[in-house]
Design brief:
EC 3.2.1.86; about 475 residues; globular; 14 strands; 6-phospho-beta-glucosidase activity; alpha/beta; TIM Barrel; two-stranded parallel sheet; glycosidase; GH
């Protein structure tokens, strides 16, 4: 075997979210979430990323409509009932870790319930036990783009400080219940998306408010406080807990070597990526964010003790998703927009793209890992990485996906080189090891998985699981600890 660049004990695995996989949207007491009211749009523009603006009228309409074709995330891939079968397939690939999220709206369907929903916890008990049975570390995301509607109805989302206490109470239930079983946690999925996807992450939907951006950053401040308090609580309950921050890192390059473009790149990197990680890992609001707030006339209400909590209880590791990079320029007139994770970016003429317009930049992953490790000196965990593709089932029922293998091979190769550079890494949970509903478009045909799920965009199909060629490739990657790619 070729000598591996990956350390012994490196955690190979995959990641799913409850709101895209679970289904069972109205079973065992669960209440509605933002994903449950997001409609499928068959005419989605593949080349531009548009965030659906969830308003109160849409929410009220969805409450009175039990449809699961129009609202695909309500059905997911029925992981709520197939988790044993699916986790067994992950174990067959050799997963060392499985990242999954717990749905807040299952555990506290009323938002401020006096006690958690036991049926929900029993379900997650089984998911975690299934992971442990197969020798996998369960990695739990506490909040993953699925703000409960009830928290919007009752409190107005994260703009209301009341959510800090509700979230910490929710965390306490999880930390105590899974003490000794779950070691790795993520407080908020891709927390930097709060200012781009305010409904999914913050439950703030007052788009026309004159201080809307201020509302988003106020809600984000409440999440920073909640993350710090959850981190303190997790360490008190079990000192072995590892609590991670997480951003969707948009690696940024200057369009040219003009100093003005480099300066714009620096500013974009600061407010799209570093600001969030600086607060969660360095424990303070950075100088450039304070300047941004001043220039935008944003005033945050910060209570006594907030900054001390943020400073004292920082994350244990840096979690990040990496899908695509972007370019920055002081003059964007000549640049072309293309789609990307959560929001559109300016197209880099030197990079290829997938069928949804997302540009493919493996070398950017190595660059980013070095950048992040140099800045925070904490181990890095790649929590999401992949690309959506159209898959075709052959007459004999097989699925050949060399394009997926090639994408992942190139990115894993660059991870290994970053480790050789000296970057400390914990593991890699590839996004979507089994096909599920797309977060951005609510379609099924945008597939990420090693495992094909027989379901189309409208919910038709047998739901049969089929191993793709990439399934066996990743199985060998794990078996050889990344030595054979």
């Amino acid at each position: 075997m070729i000598q591996s660049l990956f350390p012994e004990g490196f955690l190979w695995g995959g990641a799913l979210s409850a709101c895209q996989a679970e289904g069972a949207y109205n079973i065992d007491g669960k209440s509605l979430t933002i994903p449950d009211v997001m409609k499928f749009n068959s005419n989605n523009d593949r080349k531009v990323t548009k965030q659906m603006k969830i308003n109160r009228e849409m929410i009220e309409e969805a409450k009175n409509d039990p449809d699961t074709v129009k609202y695909p995330k309500r059905r997911g891939i029925d992981f709520y009932h197939t988790f044993r079968e699916d986790i067994a397939l992950f174990a067959e690939m050799g997963f060392k870790v499985f990242r999954y999220s717990i749905a807040w709206a299952r555990v506290f369907p009323g938002g401020d319930d006096s006690a958690p929903n036991e049926k929900a916890l029993q379900f997650y008990d089984q998911v975690i036990e299934e992971c442990l049975k197969h020798g996998m570390e369960p990695l739990i995301t506490i909040s993953h783009f699925d703000t409960p509607i009830v928290l919007i109805d009752k409190f107005g989302g994260w703009y209301n400080r009341r959510l800090v206490d509700l979230y910490v109470n929710y965390c306490e239930v999880l930390f105590k219940r899974y003490k000794g079983k779950v070691k790795y946690w993520v407080t908020f999925n891709e927390i930097n998306m709060s200012v781009k996807a305010g409904a999914k992450t913050l439950g703030i939907i007052e788009y026309d408010a004159p201080n809307y951006e201020e509302m988003l950053f106020q809600g984000l401040h409440h999440q920073f406080v909640a993350a710090s308090r959850a981190t303190r609580l997790a360490h008190e309950i079990d000192p072995g807990n590892q609590i991670g921050s997480m951003v969707a890192y948009f690696t940024t390059y200057p369009y040219t070597c003009k100093p003005e473009d480099a300066l714009q790149m620096q500013k974009d990197d600061q407010m799209k990526n570093q600001f969030f990680l600086d607060v969660l890992n360095l424990g303070e609001y950075p100088y450039y964010a304070k300047t941004y707030f001043k220039d935008k006339n944003i005033t945050l209400h910060i209570e006594d003790g907030d900054l001390d909590s943020i400073r004292t209880h920082t994350a244990d590791y840096v979690g990040m998703s990496y899908y695509n990079s972007m370019i920055s320029s002081s003059d964007t007139e000549q640049l072309e927009l293309t789609a990307g994770n959560v929001h559109s970016v300016y197209k880099n003429p030197h990079l290829p793209e997938n069928e949804w317009g997302w540009q493919i930049d493996p070398v950017g992953l190595r660059y980013t890992l070095n950048l992040v490790y140099d800045r925070y000196h904490k181990p890095v965990f790649i929590l999401e990485n992949s690309s959506g593709f159209y898959d075709k089932v052959n007459v004999d029922g097989t699925v050949n996906d060399p394009y997926r293998i090639e994408f992942l091979r190139k990115h894993i190769e660059q991870m290994g080189l970053a480790i050789q550079d000296g970057v400390e890494m914990i593991g890699y949970t590839m996004w979507g090891p089994i096909d599920m509903i797309s977060s951005s478009t609510s379609e099924m045909s945008k597939r990420y998985g090693f495992i094909y799920v027989d379901q189309d965009d409208y919910g038709n199909g047998t739901m049969k699981r089929t191993r793709k060629d990439s399934f066996y490739w990743y199985q060998n990657v794990i078996r050889t600890n990344g030595a054979e790619l």
